Amino acid sequence: MFSDPPTVYRPFMEGVYRVSAGLFRLGAQPIPWREDGRAEGHTFALDRDYGRFVASKVAAHRRAAHEYQGEAGLTPELREAALSHVARTLAAESGGLMIWDGRRFTNRTLGWAAELGLRWGSVEGLTRFDAPLASLVAEIAPLTALDFLGLNAPEDLAVVARAPEGGRDWLAAAHVLSPQHWDPRDKLGRDFVAVHAPVAGSGPMNATAPRLVEAVIARGPFVRFAWGVAMSGRLDHHPAAPPDADRAGETRFDPDRAFLRVERQTLTGFPSAHGALFTIRPYVCPLREAVATPEQARPLAAALHSMTPEQVAYKGLTHLLPELLAWLDEQGTLKEARGGPALHSGA
After folding, report:
1. Whole-structure pTM over 0.90, yes or no?
2. Cα gap 141→145, rounded to integer Å
3. Which of 30, 135, 277, 341 is most open to solvent, judged by the fewest CB atoms within 10 Å of its CB?
4. 3-state SS, residue 331
C-alpha cells in the first residue's frame, strides 16, 4: 500500500494570482514557493490518498463513463507513445506495486491485471486477484487501454496532438474523471486556444500558444500548478455529476468546510509521435491546514485581491470572497493579538 501523506502545495505563496504557462522543468528546476525549494521529479503521485482517487474514479465511471473520456483524431503512433509512457512510469514510480512487462500491466494494490494493445488501445485478458483495494474495482470493466491505465492512476490523462504539416494542435484524447466544473467532451478535437478560452485572463497565455505547444512537445518534461478555493472536498465536479456545496448559490464561506484545491500537471512530449501527454492530479486540502499560519494567510489574501472580477467569477468565488478575505485578514493578524508584529493581508 502507498503510505506517504499527500503533499500540501501552496502556489499562492507568491502573493499573486497568475494565468500563465508557469512551466518548471521536471526533475531539474526548483519550485520557488515550495518550503524546501526542491525540484519536482515524479510524474505520478502515489500516496495514501490513492484509494480515495480510485473510488472517486470508479464512481464516475459507473455513473456515465462516456462523459469523462474520448478520442479525437488520435494516431496509433501517439497513442502508443503516450500509453507506453504511462504504463512504464506508473510501474517505475510505484515501488514494485505495479508491474509493466511491455504487454501486461499488473496492479498489486487493486488486484487486477490486463494485456494492453497500446497502438490500437485494446484491453484484453483482464484477471483479478486478492489485494488490499481489490474491492474498489471488483465490478468495473475497463473499456480501452487508456481507460484501464487511467483507472490505475490518481492522475487524469490528456493527450495533445500536433499536425506535422501546418502545426495545427488539438486535444486528441482525454480520460478526466476528476474535472473541476468542466466537461472533457467539450474540449476534444479543439486546439489549445479554444480549450483555454473559457479561462478568465488566459488571453496573454493563448497568444503564445504555438510556442508553448512546441516547448511542451520538444523541450519537456515540465510540471505546472493551478489553484483555487473550493467549498467541497469532492474530486469529481463534472457539470453533469450530482450537485454538492461547491459553487451552489446558497453556499456561504465557512473555514471549516473550505478547501484549497491545487492541480499539479505534468507535460511530457513525444516529438517523433507529434504530441504530448498531460497528467492532472488535484490536491484537495482543508483550508485551515493549507493556511495554518499568518505567514500563509497574508499571501493567499494578496493573491485573491489580485484577481480580476472575471477571474473571481470563473473560480466560483464571487459570493464567497468578502467572507473569505475577512477570515484571512483575521488569520493574518493573529500575531498582533499575541503581542507579535502585525501581518496585514494587503490589497
Report:
1. yes
2. 11
3. 341
4. helix
Separation of alpha carbons 137 and 250, rounded Å: 35
DSSP string, 62-103: HHHGGGTEEESS--HHHHHHHHHHHHHHHHHHTTTSEEE-SS
Mean pLDDT score across all residues of the chain = 93
DSSP states of 110-147? TTEEEEEETTTTEEEEEEE---TTGGGGTT----SHHH
**Pick from 263, 81, 265, 274: which is nearest to 160 by CA?**
274
What does the pLDDT average to over 187-211?
92
| Backbone CA torsion sign across 105, 50, 221, 162 | positive
Q: Which of 260, 252, 246, 254 is nearest to 292 (CA)?
A: 260
> Tell me, what's the pLDDT at 304?
97
Taking residue 333's Cβ as centre, other Cβ atoms within 10 Å add up to: 18
**Helices within the chain (DSSP H only):** 50-64, 76-93, 145-152, 184-187, 192-196, 203-207, 209-218, 287-290, 294-305, 309-314, 321-332, 334-337
CA atoms lying within 13 Å on the CB side of residue 57? 28
Residue ranges per structural domain of the chain? 11-334
pLDDT digits (tens, 9 = 90+) for 38-92: 899 999 999 999 999 999 999 999 999 999 999 999 999 999 999 999 999 999 9
Give the count of alpha carbons within 13 A of 27, CB side only.
7
Q: Which helix (H) or strand (E) holds 260?
A: strand 259-270
